[in-house]
């Protein structure tokens, strides 16, 4: 690749959606490389609520704030490692930061404002949580599909791992008593499979061997143009429903021809006493965040894709839905799945601007209030936070800064703090009025060209129907 001045270097990476730009031609430092590393749990409070910590992914630092009269007052920052994506406090005096690009976790002394220990943990760590008796640190490792475990009090800890049967385990949560660790499987899937072309063409199939199969009863919508040659035979997608039947987007049954299965595991439930995992299935396609309520129930948030629907005209504007799913303590019982955008009808590929502005897009962070009265969910693509009841009913919508990825509630439940990743700020939201009362900025070295281009990739109000 040429190194001539003015040539922008671009990398595309798997999993982290890594888009790196050395923006010399835009008057920015040519040494800055922007990796769109996904934040997972980027903000936290000490148990007393007196200190707020937030990762500054672009600057490879942990930002530390004192909470004064309910407002965050910046104390300073500490370099931790490359691409910090998650932080959790452990007591009042320390915070642990997950550095995804450095493949490490760092312990930060909050009083001394320095890193006191760094542990090399494994490939692409995503989140950390402290659970079990005796207490252990659990770190999700996205690439090897593992949950790492070690003693956070040990100077040179021994690391063991637990295999997670699902791709990209990321967000973590724990039961109120710390006996269980919940692991969100980011790329969990939606129980769909590809039927081989030869099977689709079989006379015993639901279309009698017609290939390509029609998508609207016995017809094609849109219709095939007159005079076009015969379309080549294709593979097909079917999806398993609640009755364990494999059906396609035309509701035709392929069960008799599919003699294999695929995993659809959304949450791993890890017993900290035995370090074994069970699974919650069938919630959504992509699980982005987890929040545990005081009653032990688990709220998963994410997106449900409709990949079984064929042809762009049938999918246009309705590629996916943003969902929440509440599961009983321990991952038991029948989950309650609800739409985070109950005002949308999904009957047309687009809607008016006012309706779009009421929508939540690309949900990421989630936090319950201490009294279990409501949960707050951050919409990274819609620059807002939605409040929902335990049953999933919408209770309010709050506009915040650009790219909110994390949310944490104060111990008294009077306010929540939201990390706005794309503009480098923290929003303070009153839970009494469901309104933003303050916004505090911190240093963000991201080049202007990246900030200007991000809305084209993420802004669901501007680029979604």
Please characterize this protein's 3D structure.
This protein is 6% helix and 41% strand. The chain is mainly beta. The strands form nine sheets. Strands 3-4-5-6 form a four-stranded antiparallel sheet, with no helix packed on it. Strands 7-8-9-10 form a four-stranded antiparallel sheet, with no helix packed on it. Strands 11-12-13-14 form a four-stranded antiparallel sheet, with no helix packed on it. The two termini are 38 Å apart.
What proportion strand? 35-45%
What class, by secondary structure content? mainly beta
Q: Supply the number of helical segments.
A: 5
Helical percent range? under 10%
The beta-strand count equals 33
Poorly predicted parts = 1-29
User: What sort of overall outline do the alpha carbons produce when their principal axes are compared?
Assistant: globular
> Could you give the order of strands across the largest sheet?
3-4-5-6
Largest sheet features? 4 strands, antiparallel
The overall pLDDT, averaged over residues, is 91
- CA radius of gyration is 23 Å
Distance between the termini: 38 Å
